[in-house]
User: Fold this.
Amino acid sequence: ASSNRRANVDRASAYRSLMMALFSHGLGYCGCMAAAAYMPQVKGFPETLAEQALDDALSSGAAVPVLAISGLQGSGKSTLAAQVVARARARGLCAASLSIDD
Assistant:
């Protein structure tokens, strides 16, 4: 049980670190941040993040796993959701993303 908690803390810490890295490079939503001089050519998040998010949802043990993504406007929620759906479909799973912004 403690190893699962430690893994969850490590995973949460990795997510926070990634989001902080994105914000510090001007890729997140904040009017006072300047855009980074170098913008990556590949759009979206690292595939390993999408894979990990999908693996986490699937390991929940739920009959129908649900992955909820929340964040500030412009932080990449829809982009990450699209990447997770694409990874799920590549594995032969049925997946969809729903937006409740509208």
Notes: The mean pLDDT is 78. Residues 60 and 66 are 9 Å apart (CA to CA).
